[in-house]
Task: structure prediction
Amino acid sequence: MTTQDPKQDECALELARRQRIRDSLGEWWARLAKMSSIWDLETVKHLVILNAAGFAGVSTLLASNKLTPQCIGPATLLGYGFAVLLAVLNMHLGGKSFERMASEVKDRISLTGQLSESMAGIFDRPKAGRVLNIVGQFCGWMSATLAAASTVAVGISLVSR
Result:
C-alpha cells in the first residue's frame, strides 16, 4: 500500500481504520435491532400473560363469591387490568427505545465514511431512546408490583376466610 505520495498513504490508512470502525458499529446496530425484538417478545410473554391470568383468576373467584371483603375483587381486577396496560406500555416504550438507539448507531456508521468527521466518542453509549427506556422500565416495574400486590391481596382474602 506504499505509494509515492505520503498523504495518499495516510488517507488510505485512515479509510481502512474507519472501515473497521464501521464494521464494529454495524455489528452493534444489528445487536440493538435484535434486542428490540427480543424485548418485545419477553415482555409479552412474562408481564402480559401473568397479569391476564391473574385477571382471569380473580374474575373466576368473583363469580364464585369466594373473595371477602367484597372490595378485594374489584380492587384486584383493577390492579391486574392496569398491570396489563402498563406491561403493554413497557413493551412499546422498550421497543421504541431500542429502535432509537439503533438509529443513532446507524447515523454514526454514516459518519465513518466522512474523513472530516472525528471518530472521538463514536462508541459512546447512545443517548437516543434513553428516556423512553427509563420510562419503559418504570412501567414494567409498576406492572410487576401491581401483579404482586393483587396476588397477595387475593391470597390474604382466600386464607382469611
